[in-house]
Amino acid sequence: MELEKFSYPEAIRYLADKYSIEIEEVERSPAQLAAQDKRESLYVLSAWAGKFFVEQLWKSEMGQVIGLNYFKERGYREDIIKKFELGYSPEEWTALVDKAQEAGFHPDYLAASGLAIERDDKSLYDRFRGVSCSRSII
User: Fold this and answer.
1) Per-residue pLDDT reduced to its tens digit, 15-52
2) Which of the two ends of the chain, N or C, has the fewest CB atoms closer than 10 A to its terminal CB?
3) Rounded to two decimals, what is the model's pTM?
4) The dihedral of CA 102, 107, 113, 116: what is its sign?
5) In this structure, which long-range contacts are made by residues 97-105, counting pairs with CB atoms below 8 Å and at least 24 apart in sequence?
6) Segment holding 118, helix H or strand E
7) How confident is the model at residue 138 (pLDDT cuts 50, 70, 90)?
8) Of 109, 99, 124, whose CA–CA distance to 46 is shortest?
């Protein structure tokens, strides 16, 4: 890729041609492409939410007072808290939802990911509020 300045798919095709390897390429339907886009969007949102919770633990006053103390009282050292990317979710009803929408995430994905719950009036609120959690559960 670096030598020929190819993208990954171009490099694969180049090597397949060079060594006479047939590549079977399948064209995906619009529905398959839409499903893949949704999965990727949900993955990006989940990763962003994990970072949000970690930042809340270390950078917010409530995260340090409630979340960090919670972990320390249970014997977790700071290096372990950082290693496992433990975090804190603020007690506000829409802290995550508001920040995610500011960051450009679509409300439908917030509900589909399980990070937010939809009310009858179609507005969203955070599923996790005032809890300490591991980024790996998100």
Assistant:
1) 999 999 988 878 888 898 888 899 999 999 999 999 99
2) N
3) 0.73
4) positive
5) 97/124, 97/125, 97/126, 99/52, 100/45, 100/48, 100/49, 100/52, 103/48, 105/45, 105/48
6) strand 116-118
7) very low
8) 109
